Amino acid sequence: MKFEKIIPELKEYVRKEMGKGGAHDFDHIARVLKIAERIGEAEGADLDVVFFATLFHDIDRQREDKGEVSCHAESSAEHTRRLLRNYLLLPGDFIERVAVCIERHRFREGRTPESLEEKVLSDADKLDAMGATGIARAYIFGGAFGERVWEENPKNERFYPGMDVYEYSPRTEYVLKLSKLKEKMFTKTGRKLAERRHRFMEIFFEELENEVIGDR
Ligand SMILES: [Fe+2]
Asked: Which residues surround ligand 1, an ion (CB under 5 A)?
């Protein structure tokens, strides 16, 4: 299946579930689908598994944001099992391979991607948090919470509810998280793409610092 031939009804369903705005809307899915297809092709992955896993990987993200589920990866995997079984009538072993990709796309202790398809989704999803896209997403997210453009001393802890967001900026996210993503790539193709995106973020934040201190 070629990714551009997404069944329209399926696409609409995912779009509705993802909701509008923020860093995790359907645009995120559309971008990750393109990059996952590129990595999957180069690495020789099963593109059908990669396609369904990528399409549904964040389908319950909003439910986690609303506090309805504790882990969107687990919940999205379960949601996908139901969908693929009940509406698309796909074989059980195929559904399981898709669901496990979704469960393991979120890096957590004791749960890392193992199959090639799991690695492809994980890499593609992380790449969307890097480079120009990653910076744009971080500022969209930060802007919605009232963060600053620049924070002089990035805190040692990540943003958490109740924290004074004015102490925080997307640069903090870059220092603490985004700058480390390139080390979390699993495939050769993912690593190569991550290098360029990492370099762009370095240049952006160097330039931003120089502008903030009045050097440019
Ligand atoms: Fe994602």
From this structure: 58, 125
